[in-house]
Amino acid sequence: MYHLAKSIYFWATSKEGGSFPLPFPPISSPPLTTSSTNSLPRLPPEYSILLLGLDNAGKTTLLSTIKSLYNNSSPPPTSSKPTVPTVGQNVATISLDDMYLKIWDVGGQHALRSMWTSYYDVCHAIVFVVDGCDVGEGEIDTLGRNDTTENEGSPTGGRLEECRKTLESVLSHPSTANIPLLVLANKQDREDCVETVRIKEGLVRRVFEGERGGGVRDSRVLPISALRGEGVREAVEWVRSRVRWNREGRGPVMR
Ligand SMILES: Nc1nc2c(ncn2[C@@H]2O[C@H](COP(=O)(O)OP(=O)(O)OP(=O)(O)O)[C@@H](O)[C@H]2O)c(=O)[nH]1
Ligand SMILES: [Mg+2]
């Protein structure tokens, strides 16, 4: 009963009908391919990407930008048309030359993070979005240290410590073992955004070196501006190559 209710919830809160398969491929479908042993046309494989990160990091903005870049029908996001905090999920499928990417954007508010685990078993890569303007001002050495107050705020005024604990919790879950991880230092268009190296050293390296880093995995940190679309194609390309490389570890869905 619980699973049925959860499925209905996913379906009801999803713009594409949740985890139920699409009735038809998207308008700009990749070309049909033909198997060497079977002359019937075959659709490219589908991989699922999970967008995670704290509330206000820019996940929904990123999904909108990806849709506008890859699915011509969607308009790009603008700062004059603000997003609302996601409660539940958004999902979009884009078609690339050799695969479909089904991208799940889930709410990052504290109370919603327990829902993330429901996606771990089916995702092929995790994209963790960090608000590069909300990580604090301190030196790299002090960023990400475990000397925070009860409300998880960083002593330097940002949310890097909350990011660290959240990322650790994602990576230490057994279902995310070996799954490629892309960390995006978002909002690079803003002057108060920290350099990507701070997020790399103060967050990602500390998580990987800690006890809850979740073992060895393919990973990268990239700067982006989800709002302006800068760096977004590079991010999608990284994900595309990594899910292919890891297809023996976690195979795609064949449509
Ligand atoms: N300047 C700037 N603002 C951005 C960028 N990306 C997102 N924002 C803004 O950040 C705010 C939060 O963006 P969302 O995409 O809603 O954040 P979210 O991660 O989906 O938040 P939740 O749904 O609560 O988890 C919005 O006001 C966006 O316009 C960016 O690259 N640059
Ligand atoms: Mg959102």
TrEMBL record:
Upper lineage: Eukaryota, Fungi, Dikarya, Ascomycota, Pezizomycotina
PROSITE patterns: ARF (PS51417)
Keyword annotations of the record: GTP-binding, Nucleotide-binding
Natural source organism: Stereocaulon virgatum
Pfam families in UniProt: Arf
Alphabetical list of SUPFAM superfamilies matching this protein: P-loop containing nucleoside triphosphate hydrolases
Name of the protein described by the UniProt record: Uncharacterized protein
Superkingdom as given in the UniProt entry: Eukaryota
InterPro entries membership: P-loop_NTPase (IPR027417), Small_GTPase_ARF (IPR024156), Small_GTPase_ARF/SAR (IPR006689)
